[in-house]
TrEMBL record:
<dbReference type="GO" id="GO:0004519">
    <property type="term" value="F:endonuclease activity"/>
</dbReference>
<dbReference type="InterPro" id="IPR007560">
    <property type="entry name" value="Restrct_endonuc_IV_Mrr"/>
</dbReference>
<keyword id="KW-0378">Hydrolase</keyword>
<feature type="region of interest" description="Disordered">
    <location>
        <begin position="243"/>
        <end position="267"/>
    </location>
</feature>
<feature type="transmembrane region" description="Helical">
    <location>
        <begin position="55"/>
        <end position="72"/>
    </location>
</feature>
<feature type="domain" description="Restriction endonuclease type IV Mrr">
    <location>
        <begin position="129"/>
        <end position="240"/>
    </location>
</feature>
<dbReference type="InterPro" id="IPR052906">
    <property type="entry name" value="Type_IV_Methyl-Rstrct_Enzyme"/>
</dbReference>
<feature type="transmembrane region" description="Helical">
    <location>
        <begin position="20"/>
        <end position="43"/>
    </location>
</feature>
<dbReference type="InterPro" id="IPR011856">
    <property type="entry name" value="tRNA_endonuc-like_dom_sf"/>
</dbReference>
<keyword id="KW-0255">Endonuclease</keyword>
<keyword id="KW-0540">Nuclease</keyword>
<dbReference type="Pfam" id="PF04471">
    <property type="entry name" value="Mrr_cat"/>
</dbReference>
<dbReference type="InterPro" id="IPR011335">
    <property type="entry name" value="Restrct_endonuc-II-like"/>
</dbReference>
<keyword id="KW-0812">Transmembrane</keyword>
<protein>
    <submittedName>
        <fullName>Restriction endonuclease</fullName>
    </submittedName>
</protein>
<keyword id="KW-0472">Membrane</keyword>
<keyword id="KW-1133">Transmembrane helix</keyword>
Amino acid sequence: MTTVTVPERRIRPRRPGRRFDLRATAMLFGLAAVGLSVVGWVVRMALDVAERRPAWAVVLVLGGVVAGIVCLRRRAGFSPRRVARRATGALEEATATALDALETPTAAPAQEAHGVEESATEAVVDHERLSPDEFEQAIADLCVRDGCAEVEVVGGAGDLGADVVAVAPDGRRVVIQCKRYDDENKVGSQDLQRFGGTCFTVHEADVAVVVTSSDFTAPAVEYAEQCGILCVNESRLRNWSEGLGPPPWAPSDLVEEEAEPADRYSW
């Protein structure tokens, strides 16, 4: 009888699988979030430094490239602890550089802004070239510039004579009618009478003003003096726009000092 021997197969023991650890997973996501926050903060600071001091940005980029080349050459001797120390040092240096850049006063932008303000102040607006809507907006901008609050352009159909309303710095309500006319077309007494019938009773104006890019007729000035309406002609408007004269709601004694006797109510 022949006996056949079958080799015994060795069964490898199975390694126990790792259980899902909620705590470890939460810590992993937390560390990842912190890391992303740190990276985002560093990138934002780097962009700020690059905007304020481009030379520092170039130095940092070159330093990062050199560090990457060194790491590639020494890949065989990679040490996590050494990399962590280098990363920490680089982060501290970048943070210190960014803080220095933020604390250092930038004189050049301030000088540029000052130059822009001067050029804007020196710019002269030709009100005769503006459309009626643009003219109203230009008057509203002057009111805002000189400290008025609640400035609003209300001109249009059914405005009852009011084109711009505002509250003067001293709290008085200012109601302005704008007349964008050419030199040959003056504001007459009829225009003043229509405005005088609504500026005080309907709009409750404390200061009623008619502003024009041309001038007023003598009857219009006489009617304005009787009703207490202030008339700003082209000359007074130019001085007001260029900052050479007071705004219409300025105290009457200041206006009288700068205006000629015949023009006191055509201010």
